[in-house]
Amino acid sequence: xxxxxxxxxxxxxxxxxxxxxxxxxxxxxxxxxxxxxxxxxxxxxxxxxxxxxxxxxxxxxxxxxxxxxxxxxxxxxxxxxxxxxxxxxxxxxxxxxxxxxxxxxxxxxxxxxxxxxxxxxxxxxxxxxxxxxxxxxxxxxxxxxxxxxxxxxxxxxxxxxxxxxxxxxxxxxxxxxxxxxxxxxxxxxxxxxxxxxxxxxxxxxxxxxxxxxxxxxxxxxxxxxxxxxxxxxxxxxxxxxxxxxxxxxxxxxxxxxxxxxxxxxxxxxxxxxxxxxxxxxxxxxxx
Length: 287
Prior knowledge:
Blueprint: H1 10-33, H2 44-71, H3 77-86, H4 90-101, H5 115-124, H6 126-142, H7 160-164, H8 168-179, H9 186-206, E1 210-212, E2 217-219, H10 236-239, H11 248-286
Antiparallel strand pairs: 1-2
Helix pairs in contact: 1-3, 1-9, 2-4, 4-5, 4-8, 5-8, 5-9, 6-8, 8-11, 9-11
């Protein structure tokens, strides 16, 4: 495992560069390949719903970012440096993207309403966030974490504020699907592949595997860009893709097709039925 001693400004710069590149790149790909002339044509109820969700996500994300950052001052130098890196996780970025793409300021290119981007980000984190329900149910019923995606909450390095602000893993998907004005389609799945790709590649370039001081170290591995967690017991023969210490390009290839494969299964088996259910209820409410 590579460990890095980095300049104090590196975490903040990595955070700024990550979001400054990821957000416009995703928007450019959306506008170039997926935008339709009638994207902004939706009823007033959908506009109001998306505006409310955008404001809620803004408030929640601001609380999450600020509380994690300011509490890190008392948690030591490593924690303070790591928090900016960890805010680049795709689950946190999905909150940001949902806030921006539901805001609906048509005069500003960056804040134009793009519900397809919100649902694509939702799809991009789908396998992880669905498995949160599996781990949560296992913990409630048996006191165990069958998959291990929640296991980081039990690590000694995880602070109470991280545990307190992790609930979005459970409600981001239904909220964004509810906020979208149409049912999920394959365009959301296709765009999600680029969303995953740009986040993983940027994390590989900008964030170290692990950071350290002379006395201690802290594990990062943001967006699994350096390895799949070795303590995940779910489908070990399929998921333990770092066992032979592959070169970076080969590891990323192994990771990305598996990530998209599992997202595809969740997309078809969970998200599409959930979308039909939620949109069906919205249609019934209008009648």
